[in-house]
Amino acid sequence: MKKLKMQELIFTGVYTAIYFFVVAIVMVVLKLAVPVFDSLLLPAASALFSGIIYLLLLQKVPRFGGISVMGGVFGLLFLITGHFALSFIPSFVCAILADFIQYRWNADEKLRTLVSYTVFSFGLTGPLLPMWFMKNAYVDSLIRRGKDADYINYVFTPITTTGFVVCVVSVIICSIAGIYIGRKLLTKHFQTKR
Asked: Which NCBIfam families does the annotation name (predicted)?
């Protein structure tokens, strides 16, 4: 595996910043529109609107590494912004796995991109997954940070079996839709005519 060139790292940084901006906007809109379920719906809603960013990254950095860097940056953000200690792991794992799928899986390019984007989109579930699978440890971490019972109950309102299914299914559906929309935008606005 060759290292990314400086120009490719710059493109990766630019698209990571744009992706962060889109995720931040989606987070604010969801917090205003559906305040209890905003964190549950964030990965799916972000996947719906970020397909074009992912495709542009693949176009400018057409080899292994760019996807991993983008996901890794989000993992670091989860780590340094006070999320549960293990929240960064899904971002790293999903990004690296998405990179392998995109550039090491011997399948049709469109299928590879769709699957890799779907896997990548699950990286944003990092702050959520411990709430389902490590609830006691997560509650203890909130208590150590000075959160009261009302806040903890509010945070865990959508954390049910149904909520888990909704989160997973919605990420898959929105990733498929996001790549479809992204391809339409890429063809219409970003591909050079020859």
From this structure: Trep_Strep
Decide if 87 contacts 116 (C-beta within 8 A).
Answer: no
75 to 20, 40, 71, 72, 181: CA distances (angstroms): 12, 18, 6, 5, 26
Each residue's pLDDT tens digit, 70-105 = 999 988 888 787 776 677 888 999 999 999 999 999
Q: What pTM was estimated for this model as a whole? A: 0.89
The structure tokens listed for 41 are 């719906």
For 64, 107, 144, 160, 181, the CA distances from 53, given in Å and listed in that order, are 16, 22, 37, 31, 11
Q: What is the pLDDT of residues 105-136, one digit of tens each?
A: 999 999 999 999 999 999 999 888 888 888 88
Rounded to a whole number of angstroms, the CA Rg of the chain reads: 17
Q: Which backbone phi and psi does 62 adopt, to 5 degrees?
A: -85, 45
Residue with tokens 């996807």: 67
Amino acid identity of 44?
Answer: A
